[in-house]
Amino acid sequence: MASTEGFVEADNAEAIITRIEHKSRKIESLLKQSKPVEALKTALEGSPPKTRDERCKSANWIVVHRALMAIKDVEGLLSSLDAEYYDILMKYLYRGLSTGDRPTCDQCLRIHEKLTERAGLGCILRCLADTVNTV
Amino acid sequence: MANTLRLYLTCIRNTLEAAMCLQNFPCQEVERHNKPEVELKTSPELLLNPVLICRNEAEKCLIETSINSLRISLKVKQADELENILTKKFLRFLSMRAEAFQVLRRKPVQGYDISFLITNYHCEEMQKHKLIDFIVQFMEDIDKEISELKMSVNTRGRLVATEFLKQFL
């Protein structure tokens, strides 16, 4: 079971990374059109599920980070984002907070406060408890 | 500046409120033993994801939870050498008196200045929101204490130097 999963991982990793590159190009164009909310939605949508590969996760994180830093209006973002993306967004926020880079942390802290108000403590706890789908 | 502090503390408070769900869990390996699982890390199914919350490059807070215990490690902002020494001495002073604090850990985790260990027994005896208030209040007060200490050291140094050098006038 684990070995077949490993096999699938190797093939999938390349496919996932190409997909992420496509996504990043789409996000760049969305950001140029000043649509940061759509950009973030696209970034969160194709989050690779159940990948162990660090490269895929890092690649996706870079894309999400780009979209997150472009956000200026947090309230608008959260009102237009669907509830199913709250959990993934929270995981990426914690990843951003662990980087220690000042502007990233500022932005992540701002969004974290508003997101907790909206999604509640359950969102944080799901993020802590989910050891399988880490980001 | 004050705004980021407020956001940082709010983030830590929310994370602690979510993470502080502790229950009694006797040790699985040794019978009749009850150990804080976050310290031992023997069984991965009992541990939650550790979370690192950084305010900037200098200040961060690591929160590790498990089924029966929660460990919070803080790194306090240290602008120069003097603050470095003052922080180390002051926090060592507190850590040596960890018995009185109950939730304090005697030695900070590697890479951090001070650590707290909260177990399910603490949550049973004391109120959860009061514990969280204590931790957040501690973080606010530490900065003030260190600046006060630094100011008093500088003042004392200046007075001593003035007095000493008067004899050479």
TrEMBL record, chain A:
Regions crossing the membrane: none
Keyword terms, alphabetized: Cell projection, Cytoplasm, Cytoskeleton
Highest taxon, organism lineage: Eukaryota
SUPFAM superfamilies: Arp2/3 complex 16 kDa subunit ARPC5 (SSF69103)
GO CC, one annotated term: Arp2/3 protein complex
Family according to the record: Belongs to the ARPC5 family.
Quaternary structure and interacting proteins, as annotated: Component of the Arp2/3 complex composed of ARP2, ARP3, ARPC1/p41-ARC, ARPC2/p34-ARC, ARPC3/p21-ARC, ARPC4/p20-ARC and ARPC5/p16-ARC.
Protein name: Actin-related protein 2/3 complex subunit 5
Automatic annotation (TrEMBL), chain B:
Keywords: Actin-binding, Cytoplasm, Cytoskeleton
Protein name per Swiss-Prot or TrEMBL: Actin-related protein 2/3 complex subunit 4
Entry GO CC: Arp2/3 protein complex
Cited function: Functions as actin-binding component of the Arp2/3 complex which is involved in regulation of actin polymerization and together with an activating nucleation-promoting factor (NPF) mediates the formation of branched actin networks. Seems to contact the mother actin filament.
Location(s) in or outside the cell: Cytoplasm, Cytoskeleton
A GO BP entry: Arp2/3 complex-mediated actin nucleation
PANTHER family: ACTIN-RELATED PROTEIN 2_3 COMPLEX SUBUNIT 4, ARP2/3 COMPLEX 20 KD SUBUNIT
UniProt key word Cytoplasm: yes
Source organism of this protein record: Quercus rubra (Northern red oak)
Location, primary (coarse class): cytoplasm
GO-annotated molecular function: actin filament binding
